[in-house]
Amino acid sequence: MGGDRAPEIVVHGMAIAAERHPSARFLLVGDEAKLAPLLKQHKRAANACTVLHTPDAIAGDLKPTAALRMRRASMRIAIDTVAAGNAAGVVSAGNTGALMALAKIVIKTMPGIDRPAMAAIAPSVRGDVVMLDLGANVACDTRNLVEFAVMGDVFARTVLGLTAPSIGLLNVGSEELKGDDRIRAAAEVLRETHIGPQFHGFVEGHDITAGTTDVVVTDGFTGNVALKTLEGTAKLVLQLLRQAFTASTQAKLGYLLARGELDRLREVVDPRRYNGAVLLGLNGVVVKSHGGTDAQGFAHAVDVGMDMVVHRFNERIREGLGRIPAQPKRQNGQSAPGGVAGMGAKNGSAGGDDGERLAAAR
Amino acid sequence: MGGDRAPEIVVHGMAIAAERHPSARFLLVGDEAKLAPLLKQHKRAANACTVLHTPDAIAGDLKPTAALRMRRASMRIAIDTVAAGNAAGVVSAGNTGALMALAKIVIKTMPGIDRPAMAAIAPSVRGDVVMLDLGANVACDTRNLVEFAVMGDVFARTVLGLTAPSIGLLNVGSEELKGDDRIRAAAEVLRETHIGPQFHGFVEGHDITAGTTDVVVTDGFTGNVALKTLEGTAKLVLQLLRQAFTASTQAKLGYLLARGELDRLREVVDPRRYNGAVLLGLNGVVVKSHGGTDAQGFAHAVDVGMDMVVHRFNERIREGLGRIPAQPKRQNGQSAPGGVAGMGAKNGSAGGDDGERLAAAR
């Protein structure tokens, strides 16, 4: 029930997703009265989805603390299905803060992970680039940045199919003395980890779209601003381009001649192609779709979730995390390495039980 | 002597600047043996400039602490001329860290200013936007952000010619509860200042190029990453555009037809048009040119410096700062309001004595 045009674009998006993933089963959580007529229009979605009815939905501007109290909200029920092992993952176009809070509290972070991170794909001259964190953590310490790098490595291997992705730490300069203590310490720790050989060092804002590294690691504040600035700038240039091509008859003719190539350009920077930010470090797959996306964009977010489930993303993250040296400064004793096997078993059973089922919380 | 192709592009840039500012006189600080042959080629620059000879120059990768010890370096001598009142401002394409450190220690910050900020202009759908800080301060507190907003207001009035520029505080969401304490506190303080009516509230990364506000205020880390991401993304889209227009004969023909309009587009996002970041909050005008710019870009940086001198930018900043409420949490007692008059007199005499003279430290 979340997003600007829910549940229409979600059901339409599920029709596209059902065609792309014929063996997957989806749980569609929301108000049946609103869903039934839409499912009649989209037979493919109707065949692939089972509706879990609830009349409650979390509003886009509800505070996370208030969202946590809505136990019958569609987003909550979708997340509960993942925590209970009845779904392998959840995709939502709803309230981001609520999704993060619910995911963290109900699905819970993996042992050894301080905080989940939000990751997404951005365009570059050299192909797709993984960026994280994108806003799950406004302030991060050294250990968080190291964990993000380890999770970003697995994400790039899983979603981009790279064998040894290069990793950069976002900073205000590429020299070793730049940035604050926290970032310089993260660089030092990273050089000593199993992904040390892939660690490129510091990168700057322009390195994201230059594709200097396959993964760009940063805190949630900077990452959120950088990704939104990137999207805004692409939009600005495309808008100027549209103005240029409608400014004169001659320019309009020029557009018609170059149209095929220009459409391909637009596709490269099309935000729908990058829709689907992933919450990493949880005991389940959680994908956040843009609230303002369309059916194609929502279907892409489902693709991202399917990739992570099919490629056993979380198991690979657990392996990666097991290889980071012990935490330098442990504030509290949350970490319980003995829990790893139990968690693994739980996730394994969720995967085995339900195949590629994803819960689509709309 | 600083920048990728110094001193060639500086002398060439001064020829362009001399033509644009016929009443200005410039001090050109550097190695006379290298400057003399270049000045022969650029008669206009030769007529407008007086050479201050020094063989020493600060390398691009020298640490600021080491740069501070080079008392005969061209950048140092240029900055000394401003501190001594023999020039109204300085323009440099050299080492940014060295320029910031020297400016802060030799020219000094205004009374009441904790730290100088770096500001520049970025493109948006609705016209030019002022962004600050862009890297002078990696970490900022509430008071710094408020000071940046006050300085950004004056900068937008002076350089963009706006009467009541709108001001946004960069955050990860536009809702009041977003971001960290520091940013939320800065928003609260700003509402109470004389620029309160112009304060729009929080803006996000995409708001920069959307032109949601005329001024975007942020800490130096985020601002640096955001501006470089913006530049990188514009570059990516223009590169894709070039590829599109050379992909087929038909597309090439299309380009030829739309060329005039496309050139105008390129101009809007041309980084040279935005060259010239300004260090605000000092007792003199300090402009940092990109090290990789060309003569046109360097001349633009001189334009920015001239604008600030002619429009008595620093006096207006002092007025604005005098109107902020007393500092909420004062760490140390640097502020000495009694010094304002003396500083004003000093700067006034620099202006009166030398007219529009700028020292170009290359």
From TrEMBL, chains A, B:
The superkingdom listed in its UniProt entry is Bacteria
In terms of Pfam families, this protein maps to: FA_synthesis (PF02504)
| Positions of region (Disordered) | 320-362
Q: Which UniProt keywords apply?
A: Acyltransferase, Cytoplasm, Lipid biosynthesis, Lipid metabolism, Phospholipid biosynthesis, Phospholipid metabolism, Transferase
Q: Where are the transmembrane segments?
A: none
Q: Where in the cell is it found?
A: Cytoplasm
**Principal cellular location given in the protein's record:** cytoplasm
Q: Is Metal-binding given among the entry's keywords? A: no
Which GO terms of type biological process are on file? fatty acid biosynthetic process; phospholipid biosynthetic process
Function recorded in the entry: Catalyzes the reversible formation of acyl-phosphate (acyl-PO(4)) from acyl-[acyl-carrier-protein] (acyl-ACP). This enzyme utilizes acyl-ACP as fatty acyl donor, but not acyl-CoA.
What HAMAP family is this protein classified in? PlsX (MF_00019)
Question: What is the protein name for this chain?
Answer: Phosphate acyltransferase
- Which lineage do the record's taxonomy fields give for this organism? Bacteria, Pseudomonadati, Pseudomonadota, Alphaproteobacteria, Acetobacterales
